[in-house]
Amino acid sequence: MAAVAGELARRGHDVTGHTGAKYRGRFEAAGARWLPWTAAQDYDDARLADTFPRVGDGKGIKANFANFTDVLIGTAAGQAADIIAAGPFDLIVTDQLAFGGALAGERLGVPWATVAVIPLTLASRDLPPPGVPVRVSTGRAARWRNALLWQPVRLANRLAIQPRIEGIRAAAGLGRAAVAGPDGLYSPHLVLAQGAPGLDYPRSDLPAHVHYVGRLAPPPAAPGERPAWWADLAAARAEGRPVVHVTQGTLDVDPNDLLRPALEGLADAPVLVVCTTGGAATDVLGALPDNARAAAFLPHDELLPLVSVFVSNGGWGGTLGALAAGVPMVVAGATLDKPEVARRVAWSGAGIDLRTGTPRPDRVRAAVTRVLGEPRMRERAAEVGAALTAAGGVPRAADLVEELLHRA
Fold it and tell me: Domain Erythromycin biosynthesis protein CIII-like C-terminal, which positions (predicted)?
């Protein structure tokens, strides 16, 4: 979102970034004016349970539902109130999961665009419901299966989800939704979907206003301070040892989920393992094996060209970054959208879905060994990366936003 804001500001638009205090500096650095969450409850997205206790550790069905009801739905009316009070605006570009932006656009009567910050979840006759772990296939039989699978999902939406959506709409001064369910929170004007055909599933009924724009990321930062062991990366490559990068991103950061199993499983493998903790001190990992290095954060723009395999819990941003660099993946996703990310990576042929968020060490090692031994996965990662680049990224997203603005 900050990358899109920065590009629009660079083109001369007057841009306001409505975001929590944690990200104020990022939007101001991009050239946007900061509009704080005031009526909306502010929070730290890396410490959700501090503000929303029912989210707990973020794991399991109850936590996922609490994330939807307490965080996404619970902050939406406040977001809308903040935006409406700060207007007028000519156009709103909203994070798909910041529902208040959609409400404000509708209430203000201005065009608004949705940026899909997770894989596209729009319903399609060609796909099973998001979160249902069945194989995506084509043909009449698959459509019949999908229709049956959608029936209980639509019932659950009608009973548990839609009343909450209607509640936040009413709080924003809006009537009943024209489109029921979560799909009604996507813009009917413009959807900027991160990803590309070949990574996302084909849909014969994709709306014309939905555009794949690749990866929305800011320009590479200037080289910063590197860890003392950084030269070990080039040395490993020179010796023919693959570099395996393991990360859990910045939100689901319990090292027992993936980092420690990966370190244990790869401890005596002929690779160099590079871990990032997402901000925690590296001593949370315990004593590192001789073939491992760790840091709180690392610059992916500099790291990924040196990496042979990317092991992740399935954050969409990290996945897009790895594949844009042509790096094949091993994904261990369990919460929120991460299983969907893992399934898309496997479906694309660019990596392996471990089908769990807490893999055993031997499974991590077997998956990394398989990726290293199958050149086709690296080829597919490169092909997907080329498609992401061809989709246009931030400049293409800004072009589409400007086209919408000019049509208004």
Answer: 273-390
